[in-house]
Each structure stands twice: as structure tokens, then as C-alpha cells.
Amino acid sequence: MTHGFKRLGLLLAILSLSLSCAVAQAQASRQYQKVRFSLNPAQIIYLPLFLAVERGYFRAEGLDVQVMPYKGSANSQMPLLARGDVDISAVIAGPAMFNQFSEGFNIKLISTLTEPKQGYRDGAVLVVRKDLWDAAAIRKLQDLKGRKVDGAVEGNPVDFLLRSALYSADLKKSDVTLSYKPRTPGDTPEILRQKVVDVAGVSEPTATLIESRGIGVRWLSYKDVVPWYQESYLASSEAFLRDHPAAVSSFLTAYLKAVREVAKARGQWTPELLALAAKWTGLPEDLLRSVGGIPYWNEKAGIRLESLARVQRFWVESGLVKKPIDPAKVVDMTQLERARQAAGAH
User: Fold this and answer.
1) Closest by alpha carbon to 150, among 86, 84, 207, 196?
2) CATH of 30-115+230-343, one of 3.40.190.10, 3.90.660.10, 1.10.510.10, 3.40.50.300
């Protein structure tokens, strides 16, 4: 009997080893779909995407995601998407997107990224110069009349926040001195320190850095001025979406799984998320922690056409979009619906 058990054990061990070898060979021979994905690693709004890469979520979906980092505005990725040099990228719904789409730069928005929500940090903030804040010279939007304000880059989300704030206070461009002086995020603290401007629109964590240095005070963000606004999106080249729909669905599935993990933090930094953000952005953990929290990513990632329409209308009225488009023509959420089912994000 004992001899029989030993033989059975040996056979089971051999079978187990054979199965392990077969699985290893299958994994080694598996063909992964290459996806060229561009993002600006300095921006914490891409935190779930960092997580999806680090945890192997894309790999688990059969994708070989090649991250193509860039600096500066997401607007720079539109021509690359349209030409097919990039397959998927983050984009913003600014004048450049609407204008380039109307010129034939065919891309498709496939999901949203960040949007405002109470209890979470927004990606952009209006910062008031510290001396003016301490003197109570600026407390409400009407106090901006006659002031020098800076929107960082014309047509970007920071500029949209600033101009929307002026609009909501019934202030026109002629009521303020509007400028776009910074060439890099590091320029904004200096123009505030030198009193070149009174109020500046900045992205995080630059706003936190300004406040920590005693140069300015964080004031208003998206949820205070435009709570309906969807700040950023994931977009695919039209050709890649047409030719590789399953890859787009798999990419979004991995993204949604990462968003679900980040959502467990309920808007707060965890040690893991903090270390991850520091690794990708190159920013100190102390600075990131002092931001006070993380942005909000909707677990369903749906794109609201009414938000796109409102943003476009705003830029048309501002004179930066000359030929309006039908927002529905730039959106395709077919693969997002499939990804929701695969990720369990109903």
C-alpha cells in the first residue's frame, strides 16, 4: 500500500511539473498586441494609468503597452494620434482639439479621465498672491476686476478655469489684464513673488508648492466654478480603433480595474499611491502629500456630451474655435461599454 502511494505521489508530481511547463510555454508564446500610449508623467491626473502599468493590468489583458512620455500640453499629441504615430493618448477638450478635428485630424474620445467631485483635489487651482489675500483684497470673484490675472497657456484647462471664473462674475476680458506669461510650471511662483500678477491659474502640485513657500494661497478650483466640467479624456486614433477594437477594449478594461483600485482610497493618498506618483512624476512624496488628496476618476469613465458641448460653446464665444463640430462625432464609447462588462464596472 505504501509503495502504491509513493508511485501515485510521483505520478502526481510529474503531472504537476508537466502542467507547469505547459503553462509557462503558453505564456512565453503568447502574442501581445502592441499599443503605443503617450502621457505626461509629471501629471498626477494619470495616476490610475501608472498603476495599471506597474501592476501588470495591461499585460494581463494581452497588451504590450509602450509608454511614450512627453512634456508640456496634451494638445501636442493630437497630430501624433491623427497620423497614427501614437495609438492612444490623453487629451483635453480645448480649442486645439475642436479645431484640429474640424480640420480632419480624426480621433475618437474613448473615455473620460478626471472630473471634479467634492472631497477630491482638482487638477487646476486659482492662486491669489499672499499679500493680497492677507489684506482681504481678494475674497470673491468680483474682486478680480482691475486685477492682473494669468491663465498659464491660452486654451488649456487652467485658462478655462480662469476665464470661466471671470464669466461667472460677469467680468469681461477688458475688466482685467489677462496674460499668459509662464513658459514652464516653475515660472508661476516667480511671477507671483515678483508681483507681476495678482492671481494665477496653475495645476497641481504647483499650487501647493506656491502655498508652501508663502507666495500665494489656493483659492478656487473646478468644483467651485465649473463642477460639471470633465477635464481630460483618453483618445484613440480613428484607424487604431477601427483596426484593433479588441485592443482598445482591453486597454480600457485594464484602466477601469486600476480606477477601481484607486477609488478605494476615497480621495486620499495611501503609501502605495504616494510612492507610485513620486516614482512617475519625479516629485518628492512630501510635496505630493501636501496637496491634500488625489483627483477623482469616475469608475464608469463615461463621456458626457453636454459637457463637451458646453466647453466648445465657451471657446466659440471666446473666439478660439471658429468652426464648431458635432461633439457626438468625436466620441466613441463602444469599446468602453465592453470594457465595463469585462472589468465589472456596471
Assistant:
1) 196
2) 3.40.190.10
